[in-house]
Amino acid sequence: MTTPRTLWKLTTLSLMLSAPAFASADEVEQPQEDGGFALGLRAGYGVPLGHAAGSELGETPKMSEVFKSAIPLQVEAGYFFNSNVYLGAHFQYAPVLLAEDCESDVSCSADQMRFGINASYHFRAGEKLRPWMGLGIGYEMLNLKVSSSEAGVEATIGTGVRGIEFAALQAGADYRINDTFSIGPYLSLAAGVYQSSTSSREMKNVPIIGDVSESESESIDNKTVHAWLSGGVRAQFRF
Hints:
Porin; mainly beta; eight-stranded antiparallel barrel; Beta-barrel_OMP; 10 strands; 8% helix; 2 helices; Porin family protein
């Protein structure tokens, strides 16, 4: 006959055998503290929003009525203070596509340059897929150039705007291929204000007077907010 004491021992032994084994504190996997330097490369596609400047005489053309899109190419370098917090700097160059084609005898081109600093927070340390969010500030330069040639005279007219990029909201996800390389999508909304404009004119082979060039810069009085919405792919290397 089984006594209550024997039954209690058998029940306790059964629970011990069926329960999962717990690892020691040293065996539990901890999130990897992968701080250190990082280098990133981005490629994407962006569209303009808003206006380049306001006008006292009426509404100025929208950014999208002049510029169709941009193809941003960016390099960035920074430091991870721990598995989550990153601070770095970036430089971006982007060929810009115009909303309308130039005439057959005229050559048109536009480009954009941006540079600044940004901070980001990376979630789910130690896992393969790591979402992140970031915020940046910087400076933007947007240039447009029109060239033509007639009777041996070459003429080039350039115009541009410059200003502060006061907020660049960013989000994405990094998929870690290994301990040093990750890749994933990103989305960015960069808002800024153009503060000054530049204009230049250059003419070559002008009869009698030869080459002529001049340039000037002035402040934009009626400032307004514009933005660039872009998305693409980012690759990052950890050191």
